[in-house]
Structures are given as C-alpha cells and as structure tokens.
Write a sequence for this structure.
C-alpha cells in the first residue's frame, strides 16, 4: 500500500512539469520579456538546491551510513560532487562539439541568446539549441530521479514520513519547474517541445521510485552517490552556464532587478529547506 501511494505521489509531482501549459498561449513578445525574470529566478533556485539541499542531503546520508558502521571517508562525498561537476563539463563539451556544430550547418532549430550590451528587450534568434538547455534537462532528470528515490524510500519507512517528504519536494519542485520551462525556451526549444521534454524529465522520477522499490535494502549507498553527483552537476549549470547569461545584461537598472530576482530564488529554496527539511 505504501509503495502504491509513493508511486502516486511521484506521478503527481512529476506532472508539475506541465506547468508550462499556461505559458504556451502567451504571445512571443510577452514571453520574451518574462524569460529575463525566469532565468534569474531559476539560477537562484538551482544554485540553492545544490548548496542547501542536494549536497547537505548527501552528507547526511554519509553520516547515517557511518553510524551503521560503513566506515566511509568524508572526502568521498566531495569526490562525488567534483565528479558530477567535471562530468557535466565533459557532457557540455560533447554537446557543443557534436550537437552544436551540426546545427550550425543545418540551421534547423532556433535558440535565444542572452541580452548583451546594445541589445533590446527582445531575445535574439540564432541557429542551434544552446547546450545549457540540454544540460538542464540532464540535471533536472537526475534531480527528478532522486526525488523519486527519496519519496519512495520515505513511504517505505512509513506513510506519515512519506507525506512530509512529499510536501517538501512539492514546494521545491513548483518554482523550479517554472524556471526549467523558461530555461528550455531560452535555450532554443519551441514551446511545445519545451513542454514535452520537461514532462518527460518529470516522469523520470517514476524510474527513481522503481529503483528505490527494487533496491530498498542498499538504497542509502545508491542515493549517496546520486545526491552528491547531482549537486556537483547543478553547481556547474548555475555557475558556469546560467550566471554568465545573466552577466550579459549591461543596463544598471535591469541588472539590479535581475540580482533581486536571483536572490529571491536563493531565499525561497533556503526558506523551504529550513521549514521543510528532508527526514
């Protein structure tokens, strides 16, 4: 019964990825204007998710394993984090050289570039899908996979604990899914493709739930690695891919607004982690 309830909650949370439905009917020019807000907000939420959720959770799991006599060195967590950071760099380079160069020749897709000096409020279209949009899908898929694991493990340990963890994940996912949809649009996906791939990414959580159900006896070690690995990946996305896009804005007033939006994303996730921590 607990497992079925866990899968149901995972599916509902994964369906939050369809939040972009209300954005599809928005006019292109209007959508271009709000992408400025979404990118700054998503950068804050992704960075905070890595620093205040994924990495601390990985350390917490390490402590639990050591209390049970595992004897794992603390440095292992940070090795996994660096491994995630480096692997996302390698993936980004792979996407750039193979995916990006192919579309430079084919000119099949469009993407949005950042607002640099001398540019207006409308986003400029160029060929190819930006690599950070694909990286975000990978990172978000890993994050959703972990959410599925965490929720299922919580329900297997008790319905009450499962409900508490589900609420925590809900409040984490709602603002992040808005930002993720904006990142895909900003990175060159059409509205329909952004909605489709964001939904597929959300449904990856079901695979995480299935893995947790099958590997319930050894899930702590499995979870430790993916928590730390995803934390490193999210650090890479926020610090080397999204922040540089924000820095392209040269107008002082817009930069201040952007900074405040970025800080609001940070503060929101920090507040939710404090009020609704993972058990």
């Amino acid at each position: 019964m607990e497992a079925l309830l866990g899968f149901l909650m995972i599916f509902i949370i994964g369906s939050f990825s369809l939040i972009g439905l209300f954005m599809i009917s928005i006019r292109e020019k209007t959508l271009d204007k709000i992408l400025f807000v979404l990118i700054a907000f998503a950068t804050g939420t992704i960075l905070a998710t890595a620093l205040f959720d994924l990495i601390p959770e990985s350390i917490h799991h390490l402590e639990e394993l050591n209390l049970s006599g595992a004897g794992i060195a603390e440095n292992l967590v940070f090795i996994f984090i660096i491994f995630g950071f480096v692997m996302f760099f390698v993936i980004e380079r792979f996407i750039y050289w193979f995916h990006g160069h192919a579309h430079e020749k084919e000119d099949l897709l469009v993407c949005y570039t950042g607002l640099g000096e001398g540019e207006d409020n409308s986003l400029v279209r160029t060929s190819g899908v930006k690599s950070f949009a694909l990286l975000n899908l990978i990172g978000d898929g890993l994050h959703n996979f972990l959410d599925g694991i965490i929720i299922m493990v919580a329900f297997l340990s008790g319905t009450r604990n499962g409900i508490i963890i589900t609420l925590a994940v809900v409040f984490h996912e709602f603002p992040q899914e808005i930002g993720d949809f904006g990142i895909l649009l900003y990175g060159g996906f059409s509205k329909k493709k952004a909605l489709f791939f964001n939904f597929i990414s959300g449904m990856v959580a079901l695979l995480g739930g299935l893995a947790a159900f099958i590997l319930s006896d050894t899930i702590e070690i499995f979870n430790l690695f993916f928590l730390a690995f995803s934390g490193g990946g999210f650090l890479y996305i926020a610090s080397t891919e999204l922040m540089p896009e924000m820095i392209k804005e040269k107008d002082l007033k817009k930069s201040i607004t952007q900074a405040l939006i970025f800080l609001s994303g940070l503060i929101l996730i920090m507040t939710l982690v404090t009020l609704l921590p993972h058990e």
Remarks:
- The longest strand covers residues 110-112.
- Residues 2-17+30-275 form one domain.
